[in-house]
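In response to the reviewer comment on reproducibility (Comment 2.3), we provide here a single inverse folding case reported in full, input and output, so that an independent group could reproduce the run without further information from us. The structure tokens appear first.
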């Protein structure tokens, strides 16, 4: 079964996260940041992954440590749950969210890299710092060992832009983690 449950406890956060790549998109999310909970729920629903996140963080400071550490743990959980030697490896998906559009392409390669081309107009959506969107996906990509390209070429509403990003990444991951027919690493090297 392609699952992982991890806990990360620091002086700034206490996070327990469970991930099931072969789930039905069930989500049980509690981070103390309403909009972030909404994005992680959308991520679970659109990826088809079951995701449970219980996070306590120093929100009296700001959302930075909580969002970053959830990205770290989610990335580590994905790396633990997925067998790179037997998956489709690549995923590309575009999500329109009303006036906003997001393109995502990724490679579960073991080579972490993030290209993030998206701008936000306002510093916050609720209690969620919009700048943390890039930081979350940086932490996620590095810890998951994936190359991740995110581009929002246009959009006016920051909520729509952020939501399109989380949903596009979710759909691209859904494609990339599918077992491949050959059951072997999709690489001319023979390994990933």
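Designed residues, in position order:
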């Amino acid at each position: 079964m392609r699952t992982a449950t991890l806990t990360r406890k620091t002086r700034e956060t206490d996070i327990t996260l469970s991930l099931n790549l072969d789930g039905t998109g069930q989500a049980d999310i509690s981070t103390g940041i309403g909009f972030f909970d909404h994005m992680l729920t959308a991520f679970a629903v659109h990826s088809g992954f079951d995701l449970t996140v219980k996070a306590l963080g120093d929100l009296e400071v700001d959302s930075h440590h909580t969002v970053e550490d959830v990205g770290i743990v989610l990335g580590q959980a994905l790396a633990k749950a997925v067998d790179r030697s037997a998956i489709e490896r690549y995923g590309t998906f575009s999500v329109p969210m009303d006036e906003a559009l997001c393109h995502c392409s990724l490679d579960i390669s073991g080579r972490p890299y993030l290209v993030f081309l998206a701008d936000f107009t306002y510093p916050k959506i609720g209690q969620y710092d919009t700048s943390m969107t890039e930081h979350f996906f940086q932490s996620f990509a590095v810890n998951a060992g994936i190359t991740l390209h995110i581009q929002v070429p246009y959009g006016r509403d920051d909520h729509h832009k952020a939501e399109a990003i989380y949903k596009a990444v979710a759909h691209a991951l859904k494609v990339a983690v599918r077992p491949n027919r050959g059951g072997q690493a999709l690489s001319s090297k023979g390994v990933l």
